[in-house]
Write a structure and sequence with these properties.
By secondary structure, this protein is of the alpha+beta class. It is 17% helix and 18% strand. The radius of gyration is 13 Å and the shape is globular.
Length: 87
């Protein structure tokens, strides 16, 4: 049985990380983060839901860019914030 493809994957683009050294907002405000997520629509780098400010989720909600991938070394997975599922 096959799983239907997430319709939000149509928003995925070839992106370049805007702030490859860390979470864009955390770098600006001097806050620590736990793990990083890369927006696959625009290249925004945000911190994960385990981080104090959850900037990746905030970006997804505000910008309407639901698909991220882990920006951690050795990790290769994608997440859809709308469907709360791996894609």
């Amino acid at each position: 049985m096959t799983t239907p493809q997430d319709p939000h994957l149509a928003l995925v683009r070839e992106v370049t990380p805007r702030t490859p050294d860390g979470c864009e907002e955390c770098l600006r405000i001097g806050s620590p983060w736990m793990h990083l997520r890369l927006c696959l629509t625009c290249g925004h780098v945000g911190c994960c839901d385990s981080s104090p400010h959850r900037h990746a989720r905030s970006h997804a909600d505000e910008a309407g860019h639901p698909i991220v991938r882990s920006f951690e070394p050795g990790e290769d997975w994608r997440w859809c914030f709308v469907d709360e599922a791996l894609v």
